[in-house]
Amino acid sequence: MSDLWMPGAQHLDIGDHAATEGGPAKAVAHITWDKNATASKPADLVPYSDLVDYFGRNTTGRGVAPHLLWDPFTGRFTQFVPATSRSKSLVDQPGGTRTNRAGRVVIQIEALFFPYCRVDGIVHAELTDTPCKGWGSLNSWVRSWGVPDTWPMGRPTDFRSHRDERTWEREAGWYGHSQVPENDHQDPGSWPEFRPAIPSQYEPYPGASYFRPGRHSAVVTAMGRRLVAEGCDRYTSGPGPDWTEADRKSYAAWQRKLGYSDDDADGIPGPASWERLKVPNV
Predict the structure, then answer these.
(1) For 206-247, how does the pLDDT look when each residue is reduced to its tens digit (9 = 90+)?
(2) What backbone torsions phi and psi does residue 213 show, to the nearest 5 degrees?
(3) One-character DSSP codes across 79-121
(4) What pTM was computed for the model?
C-alpha cells in the first residue's frame, strides 16, 4: 500500500482533486524561483511559510499548486493534494498532449529555491549546493508510486530546455519542468542524485501481498521485534515467524505513530512506513 500523503509532510489539502489518465508514472521537478538574483546581487530566500500560504491559501496559488512543497534547507514538506490526483503546476494546453494528468501518477515537487539565494549568509547558485535535507525520504515516497529512478531526458544540469513529446508520453521516470512539452520554464537547473532504495543492512520491502495469514518467515519475527522496540507492541506472546492479527495490530500502531489514519493505518505494511521501521536483515 503506497501512501497517498507523504509520511512526515504537513497536510494542507486544497481540494479540487481530479484523476490522472494512466500511463507511465512520472515525477516533475520544479524550483519556486521567487526572485531573479545573480552572483553579484544575491537575495535572501523567501520564507517557507510564504510559499505554504501561496499554494495552500491563495486563490491564484492554488491554481498552480504542486503536490509537494519541499524546503531543501530544513527538510520540511507540505502536501496539497494526494498522490493520485493531478496537480496544476504545468501548462496543459487544450488539444495537445496531456501534462498534469499524463501518467498513473504525475507527482510534482516544488523545491523552495532560486539561483543565488542566500541562507544564513551563504549563497547557493544551484539546488544541489543546498543541504537537500529530506531528499532521501522524498525519493523513497515517489519511488513507492512506481516512478523509477531515471531521467528519460537526462538529469537536469543547466537552465536550458530539452523537450521531446514522444519521450514524455511513453517513458516513466523523473522530468524537469524544462523537459515537459507545452511548457516554457527552464527549471530546475539541477536536482540531487537518486538515493539507494534502502540501506543494505535492512530488509527490502517485500510487497503488501507478503503480509497475509499463513506467511511463516523470519522477516515477520524481525519486523515484530522492531515494532516492540518502537513501543507499538500489541502482542500477547511473541513476536514470532507467523503473520497474525497481533502483527497487523502492532503495525497499525506503528502507522498511527507515523501520523497515518483511517485506511492508511490498516496494519498492512507500505513501502514508506517499512523503510522507516528499518527491519534488520535476517
Answers:
(1) 888 899 999 999 999 999 999 999 999 999 999 999 999 999
(2) -55, 140
(3) E-S-TTB----S---TTS--STT-SS-EEEEEES--TTEEETT
(4) 0.73
